[in-house]
Amino acid sequence: MSTTMNKSTVIGRRQVLKGAGLGALAVVGTGLTTSEAAATPEKAAKAISKFTGGKKATAGKVTVKLPEIAENGRTVPVTVSVDSPMTDADHVKSVILVAEGNPSPEVVSFTMAPGLGKAEVSTRMRLGKTQNVVAAAVMSDGSVYSGTKQVKVTIGGCGG
Amino acid sequence: MKKTSLIKQIVMFAGFGVLVAACAPKEEALKSGYDWAIPETQAMQDDDFSNPAFMWVDIGNDEWSKTDGEAGKSCADCHGADGSSMKGKSNMYPVYNKDDKKLRSIQDEVNNCRTNRMKAKAWKWESDQMLGMAAFIRTQSRDMPINVAVDGDAAPFFEAGKEFYETRRGGLDMACTHCHVDFPGVKIRANVLTNGLGNGFPTYRLKWQKIGSLHRRFRGCNKNIRAQPFKQGSDEYTNLELYLNHRAKGVMNESPSVRN
Amino acid sequence: MAKKPRVKVPKSAKKGEQIQIKTLISHKMETGTRKNKKTGKLIPRMIINTFSCSFNGKELLKATLHPSVAANPYFAFYAKATESGTFDFVWTDDAGKTVSASSKMTVA
Lengths: 160, 260, 108
Fold this sequence. Notes:
The structure holds 3 protein chains of 3 kinds.
Chain A: H1 7-36, H2 41-52, E1 58-59, E2 62-65, E3 69-70, E4 76-82, E5 92-99, E6 106-112, E7 119-125, E8 131-139, E9 144-153
Parallel strand pairs in A: 1-9, 3-9
Antiparallel strand pairs in A: 2-4, 4-7, 5-6, 5-8, 8-9
Chain B: H1 2-23, H2 39-46, H3 54-64, H4 75-79, E1 95-97, E2 102-104, H5 106-117, H6 128-139, H7 155-166, H8 176-180, E3 187-188, E4 191-192, E5 203-205, E6 210-212, H9 214-224, H10 235-247, E7 257-259
Parallel strand pairs in B: 5-7
Antiparallel strand pairs in B: 1-2, 3-4, 5-6
Helix pairs in contact in B: 3-6, 7-10
Chain C: E1 6-8, E2 12-13, E3 18-24, E4 48-55, E5 58-65, E6 74-80, E7 85-93, E8 98-107
């Protein structure tokens, strides 16, 4: 806005940057899928599908909180929260947490009652390597939502 | 824009370098491992309930009043019911003991009480009971500064600890100083090097997934530089513990802490 | 499994208040994929596989745990204070052993 005079150049530069950014993201994205395909993103998706009874999840309402970089993959604090009023009529029925890069994807699953008042649980998990952690929630109306968080796991060093 | 910020950065970096150089000969207060940890690990320590080390403090608390051994005594019989008599004491350890003619760490003191006064079996250094008792005793002096004596009778042991700290060893030919004096704050592969203080031990290590002793940590360090580790409770490690606690003088006791 | 789990529940709460509950139990959570360094044999899986919390006999939260849960399982969650009563907590491991704890709360 402040530079109406050379607006075109500004936009042009922004477009270039944006394009470059997306390109970089795309490269990273494919890199991840190809290198980690041998692990268990498919198994993770299967585990979620089994849990939800085959119903596909819509992205949203579910938040996975993890450190950006875990200090040690053997104990990583994680919080899953679902945006829900938790009333008898409208609440979260169950939640599953899966780790795409662990030997077996399931981490923990919860059955929840409206009496919780708030659909948020914290625990500590193990992470074998840098990976995506996905949580899916089945709501009382049968709809399914999910959220994902990538966590970097540092391996090596002088952990003694 | 980018250019100026880069120059700024270079100037700042150079400035920082000068600052560091200027401060180098002066002794700065060392930092606790807590200060190098990520916020999530700090949060785990901040709340005594979520700190898993307190499960061992509970064990120590139970053992404190448990009668054991042929003398039919418990810790509480001599030292009071709640352990508060230990307040401030643990921060002075290891201390010179006239009978042994060498240093005693808290674990040695506990086992001395067990075998001599209680006529009970000594605990193993890394057992749940010993870790629990050490954590229970150490936590009575929490948030008080580490304060060891290194003069008088303790002097030769302090010197031995200092020598250990500064001596190159192992396949990598490294001394403690090479990491913990020369490069604190710098990453060694994926881990941040710290001042390497023992103010939070026994500590719940995320890696160990349990509580562990400072001497266990020493063993890990020694193995990493491919040196033959000493035994927990060995004179070498007890002397080293004294030297570390001298380095940590004035730093607060955080036992039992949470470390990565 | 540990004899004494740690449970934190407020002693009293106001009606309608959102309270936080924290639980911690000592357990190795042996994954079943680790090998004994000396013998080379697999160490059999032994984990806490279920945790549940109920209030006045009604289940609030049930967790099914897998080996990817870290040792010494910790759970923090919420409950809405509606009436005075007792929270019951139960942990069950692969051997079928259970450990339980309970905690009373007064709601004014």
